[in-house]
């Protein structure tokens, strides 16, 4: 792939993880960081002719291209990095606001 690509991964609830990149032979540059996007927004990207790639992306977007990264490629990318965070400093990344309703206290049936 070359040019602008939008990486799409199913986030459930009719939402998707979306990040955009500019891919060239010499490098890859992030255009828009990872975030949650709703189905209508991704459909707009597809209608505008944007390249959509990701695992099983054609389930929802027929013009997309399914890609599944190979472990060897992920290892090669990791080997080129040097900006790792120590394990005890890792923190979770929450892209979706937590929404839940606390369960009522249990009923006691006599």
Describe this entry's structure for a reader.
The protein is an alpha/beta fold and 110 residues long. The radius of gyration is 19 Å and the shape is extended. Strand 1 and strand 2 form a beta hairpin. The protein has helices at residues 39-47, 71-79, and strands at residues 3-10, 15-23, 28-38, 51-54, 65-66. It has a 5-stranded mixed β-sheet, covered by helices on one side. It starts with a strand and ends in a 31-residue tail after the last helix.
Key traits:
110 residues, alpha/beta, five-stranded mixed β-sheet, 2 helices
Quaternary state, please?
A: single chain
Low-confidence sequence ranges: none
Number of helices: 2
How many β strands by DSSP?
5
Main beta sheet, described? 5 strands, mixed
Which secondary-structure class do the elements indicate? alpha/beta
- Helix residue percentage: 10-25%
Q: Average the pLDDT over all residues and give the rounded result.
A: 88
Q: What is the CA-CA span between the terminal residues? A: 66 Å
* Physical arrangement of strands within the biggest beta sheet: 3-2-1-4-5
Outline:
This protein is an alpha/beta fold and 110 residues long.
Blueprint (SSEs and pairs):
Elements: E1 3-10, E2 15-23, E3 28-38, H1 39-47, E4 51-54, E5 65-66, H2 71-79
